[in-house]
Amino acid sequence: MINGRRWRRTDPALPAGVVDRLKSHLGRGRSGVRAAKGADDAEAVRRARRIVNLANHGLGERGPYWWDAPEQDRRSRAEEALAELDALAEGGRAEGRGDGATSDRASSAR
After folding, report:
1. Could you write out the DSSP letters of every residue in 25-75?
2. Which portions of the sequence form the region Disordered (predicted)?
3. What pTM, to 2 d.p., does this model score?
């Protein structure tokens, strides 16, 4: 609590592996926002911000308060966010993009 207010943090009930994967997506999404802004690519910024938002929701740092929900619902929310993030990452690699910027792996595969 800060000044009598609960401060959002990662849901402590989430398995460490799920948290690690969500934080990985979060970091790549934030990096993608920076890169897309630098390239002045509004569409890439939008895609990267979507990744950041999904990761934060999965971690419980945005959206409904995790402390008000049953643990199973919280885990399901995290797993759903992770599945969507994984699908977005796969789609970005298939299109030659990562999280809003050009993917090194996709570029080197050509």
Report:
1. HHHHHHHHHHHHHHTT-HHHHHHHHHHHHHHHHHHTSSSS-GGGS-HHHHH
2. 86-110
3. 0.79
